[in-house]
Amino acid sequence: MDEDFKAIEFKDGKLILIDQRMLPNKLVYTDCRTAEEVATAIKTMIVRGAPAIGGAAAYGVYLALVEAEGNQKLFQALCSTIRSARPTAVNLMWAVDRVMKTAEETGFNREAVFEEADRIFKEDISMNHRLSEIGVQVIRKGDTILTHCNAGALATCGWGTALGVIKEAHRRGYGIHVYADETRPLLQGARLTAWELKKAGIPSTLIPDSAAATLIRDGRIDCIILGADRITANGDVANKVGTFMLSIIAKEYGVPFYSVAPTSTIDFTMKDGKDIPIEMRDPDEVRRPGGVLMAPKGIDVYNPSFDVTPHQNITGIITEKGIIYPPFDKNIERIRNGEPLH
Ligand code: MRU
Q: What is the reported pLDDT for 105?
């Protein structure tokens, strides 16, 4: 069953978003009526998670078209404001480009542009369900699964990617247990994933990120399942900072490591992960967790929002087209060419 909340919804000419910064303490909705408001919501992480950003941006392009009232220059400028709101998740650029292409091809027809944005939204939900059915094959009854950040319904247009697979295993009665990394510094694991897991009634335990190594070494994790913000042509994966570290530990102890993402997260044009732009965020996210100063004032901070896991550390990439196993470059090329994976 799908969840009883909607992170993104377009209704009555406006985009309605759950303000994810307020969770889990408050379930507050915020409206975006203009393209700039959509860009700001993405930048400030009212809406976050690669597919959710893509879905919100798609509707943002429609709002830009309405606002521009036939002024092409303004339309382009508004779209590029949305497109550059965050740099790492490729779903953002993919969605903006796709809706802009429809705009150009239809002579900037509002109805056609809205339909394309809506199609991106609906496709994401159905791809996530497909991903779950495919991904559940890597889970065995009684497994203990570790996840990082939030790749659930909040991070997508609905249902979720990595968390969708986990929810599907639970729905099938596999008797799984989930360990959720709290995910410093913005605590997407503690605030969002733990909230979704509790709502879904999935037995789960929240851990500080730094406890994962001990759990893995002690044989208490059967597999690691998490999302992706950008996957390059050779299978390198950008995801929330801390993912790379987990992948090294998983490799050391022989624990399967899966990334789950729709193919809209694959950047076929980028050869490998070293070219992925990694977003650097405000030092105060680290200095002042929850707004409270927890470090000496003015201390220098390194706060990358993402890191890149090399494909050598990845067991498989679960997509709606099937599970991509090594050799990743050849198999990703097959997806690009529309060929079957196996
Ligand atoms: O900074 P965020 O919260 O947008 O980062 C989100 C992640 O890293 C997710 O794991 C990723 O986008 C996959 S979401 C299905």
A: 98
